[in-house]
Specification:
The protein is of the alpha/beta class. It is built from 13 helices and 17 strands. It folds into two domains: 1-26 and 107-359, Rossmann fold (3-Layer(aba) Sandwich); 371-439, no CATH class. The relative contact order is 0.15. The structure holds iron/sulfur cluster (2 copies). One iron/sulfur cluster (SF4) binds next to helix 12 and helix 13.
């Protein structure tokens, strides 16, 4: 197969060997879950339960508070014991609903719709919205919103993102190997919701068995294909994946719908299938617990809201003194101060590293080598944006493309002067948002 890619980007060692061969294992039912009302892009969900309420697994506990928002459901049965601020998987803290389990896992009634492929697009989208599904690659955009483009933006292509370009993570890979049929059904359902004629599954070359399996499953499907991609980070980013797979260029500041494409993660396609066929709310997901610091690197099917500490314990505990914890991948994930936070809908991984990996690099002066420019997949001048932020010239940073940066970290990764480019750019984005708020 001819492999495709996009311009720019980097090629970090993929480090998938830790957990790639670990089949998906069911994590034990947690005694307690903490479900955040903000696990997605958009307004936080509004709690519809109170402390003391009894809930069943799959019951709505917080509802979408606007068009771009999300429903949240109980992931175990039990009693609501707190509605308060708790540590968030992004390393901050935010409002969450805590449920103490009764150990029985009593579910709300689900269904099994035999003719689920022939439901109307409106019904499919309403089931996706009811199930509280958001992008599971980490971006967290509510899926039903993404599948409702305006009429003047017709969609002809759906791309499933099976790239998993972040090093270490293997949850999407295992899902493709173990649930290929459900993912393909999810792709077909997503295509129906947006009336697309073409479906693509993009997979990187380091997963040849997943590529071969999907190709075998798609044999005879005239409008569905697997596209093989060279190993390159950040190929899982929407604009880069669209270019690699279709050669279409999403304009700066634009969305994939501008070029007739919708991109969804393979995990999201799986959740869409379960929501439409069984009316199953998103109450669990696959998460990789991996890195040099865990005794048994694993891919777990775990309930949303399970404490990271419980997942680590289930994987045999830490194998060394931990110096760094990351929620998500090492390139775009979030450093965690402890294992107190609980996994959310976007938690694709939890990485544990020893003390050596936690060293703080000494920033030196810029060498004007332009390596950061060469690798930037958005064609930006990272050194210019970062120095504008450092010297508090926000206008100059915006002019140089501050808002087009997707914080992929490729520039920081290659910088020989160890300048924390993406961290400076992120600081600029926060300052810009604050300035916009203050203006309003
Ligand atoms: S400037 Fe932004 S988009 Fe470009 S490489 Fe750096 S982090 Fe990635
Ligand atoms: S890679 Fe680092 S040293 Fe080279 S131009 Fe960019 S900021 Fe300067």
């Amino acid at each position: 197969m001819r492999l495709r890619t996009f311009p720019g980007g980097v090629h970090p060692h993929d480090e998938k060997h830790y957990s790639a061969s670990s089949p998906i294992t069911l994590a034990p039912l947690p005694a307690k879950v903490t479900i955040h009302v903000s696990q997605h892009i958009g307004s936080p969900s509004s709690p519809v339960v109170a402390v003391g309420d009894e809930v069943k697994t799959g019951q709505l506990i917080a509802e979408a508070s606007g068009f771009v928002s999300l429903n949240q459901h109980a992931s175990i049965s039990g009693k609501v014991t707190a509605i308060d601020r708790f540590p968030h998987p992004c390393g901050t803290s935010s409002l969450a609903i805590q449920i103490t389990g009764d150990g029985e896992d009593k579910w709300v009634e689900l269904a099994d719709e035999a003719d689920y492929m022939n439901l109307s697009a409106t019904e499919m989208k309403s089931r996706i919205a009811a199930a509280g599904i958001c992008g599971m690659g980490g971006a967290g955009f509510p899926t039903n919103v993404k599948l409702s483009p305006p009429e003047d933006k017709p969609i002809d292509t759906v791309i499933l993102n099976g790239v998993e370009c972040e090093p270490f993570l293997t949850s999407d890979y295992r899902l493709m190997m173990e649930h290929a049929d459900e993912i393909i059904s999810g792709l077909k359902l997503i295509m129906k919701t947006v009336n697309a004629r073409q479906g693509i599954i993009g997979i990187e070359a380091n997963k040849p068995d997943a590529m071969a399996l999907m190709e075998k499953k798609l044999k005879g499907e005239a409008n569905l294909e697997v596209i093989g991609l060279k190993l390159r980070y950040p190929q899982g980013a929407e604009k880069q994946l669209i270019y690699a797979a279709t050669r279409r260029k999403v304009p700066a500041g634009g969305l994939p719908m501008a070029v007739g494409v919708v991109v969804q993660n393979v995990g999201t396609a799986f959740a869409v299938y379960e929501a439409i066929r069984y009316r199953k709310p998103l109450i669990d997901r696959i998460i990789s617990i991996t890195g040099e610091g865990i005794k048994k690197p694993s891919n777990l099917q775990a309930r949303i809201g399970t404490a990271f500490s419980e997942l680590v314990e289930f994987c045999g505990g830490a194998s060394m003194e931990i110096g760094k914890l990351i929620s998500g991948g090492p390139m775009m994930g979030f450093a965690l101060p402890s294992l107190d936070a609980s996994m959310g809908k976007g938690s694709s991984g939890l990485l544990l590293f020893g003390k050596k990996a936690a060293r703080l690099l000494d920033e030196k002066s810029c060498l004007r080598c332009a390596r950061c420019v060469d690798v930037c997949p958005m064609n930006l001048l990272p050194s210019l944006i970062a120095s504008a932020v450092k010297y508090k010239d926000l206008d100059k940073a915006v002019e140089a493309g501050l808002n087009d940066c997707m914080k992929c970290g490729s520039c920081s990764y290659v910088c020989p002067a160890q300048i924390r480019l993406v961290q400076w750019i992120d600081t600029g984005k926060i300052r810009y948002t604050e300035a916009q708020r203050a203006k309003k």
